[in-house]
């Protein structure tokens, strides 16, 4: 497996996103026309990736269920505005839907954050050891370790390692600085290694767990 992106690297992600499902143009056309069966098909295809992402960001299955419902309702409401797929350089449908899901999950995370204070490490300099944790823990161990991280740190790690967002994109999504994203990845990766040692598994390897 190749090494993770360096802190300032905007290269391609380590793995294909779990959202990367090719949606036929004919199915999108049926959905735009309001066909219920088409929306049910889209829901079945994207239910798991949306729910998994929401759990990783919100840290709560009930909240994740709400994010899933809100995401799919918004997709139904806004699908007529999607014009990316098929255009040169356009956004694929799965990328557009993923953006809706991330926005919904982060909106709930911000609401959670208002209810508690979190350490602001915006001015901290990340170390060079910002890679994913070592490579032998099972998915359950990693899930428990991720759950032990602060919500913001867990969200940044997931967006960076599992979904392949760059630090610049994460900073924009979370309305923070690029250095914030870098330091959260560095801090979270070190914490995961501490939790998983003497064995551990790279985050990207269990993105669909």
From TrEMBL:
Name under which the protein is recorded: Sigma-70 family RNA polymerase sigma factor
Sequence ranges of Basic and acidic residues compositional bias: 116-130
Record's keyword annotation contains Transcription regulation: yes
Keyword line: Sigma factor, Transcription, Transcription regulation
RNA polymerase sigma-70 region domain segment(s): 42-115
Family per record: Belongs to the sigma-70 factor family. ECF subfamily.
Residue stretches making up the RNA polymerase sigma factor 70 region 4 type domain: 141-192
InterPro entries, per database record: RNA_pol_sigma-70-like, RNA_pol_sigma-70_dom, RNA_pol_sigma70_r2, RNA_pol_sigma70_r4_t2, RNA_pol_sigma_r2, RNA_pol_sigma_r3/r4-like, WH-like_DNA-bd_sf
Gene3D superfamilies listed in its UniProt record: 1.10.1740.10, Winged helix-like DNA-binding domain superfamily/Winged helix DNA-binding domain
Keyword Electron transport attached: no
Organism whose genome encodes this protein: Luteimonas vadosa
NCBIfam families tied to this protein: sigma70-ECF (TIGR02937)
Pfam family name, one: Sigma70_r4_2
Region called Disordered, residue ranges: 116-136
């Amino acid at each position: 497996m190749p090494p993770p992106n360096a802190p300032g690297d905007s290269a391609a992600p380590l793995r294909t996103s779990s959202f990367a499902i090719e949606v036929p143009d004919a199915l999108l056309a049926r959905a735009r026309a309001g066909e219920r069966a088409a929306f049910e098909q889209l829901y079945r295809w994207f239910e798991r990736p949306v729910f998994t992402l929401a759990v990783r960001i919100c840290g709560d299955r009930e909240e994740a269920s709400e994010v899933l419902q809100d995401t799919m309702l918004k997709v139904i409401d806004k699908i007529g505005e999607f014009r990316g797929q098929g255009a040169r350089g356009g956004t694929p449908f799965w990328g557009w839907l993923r953006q809706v899901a991330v926005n919904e999950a982060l909106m709930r995370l911000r609401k959670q954050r208002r209810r508690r204070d979190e350490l602001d490490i915006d001015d901290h300099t990340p170390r060079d050891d910002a890679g994913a944790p070592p490579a032998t823990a099972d998915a359950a161990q990693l899930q428990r370790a991720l759950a032990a991280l602060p919500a913001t740190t867990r969200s940044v790690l997931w967006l960076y390692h599992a979904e392949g967002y760059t630090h610049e994109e994460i900073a924009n999504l979370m309305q923070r600085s690029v250095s914030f994203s870098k330091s959260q990845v560095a801090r979270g990766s070190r914490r995961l290694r501490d939790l998983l040692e003497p064995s551990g598994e790279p985050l990207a390897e269990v993105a669909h767990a």
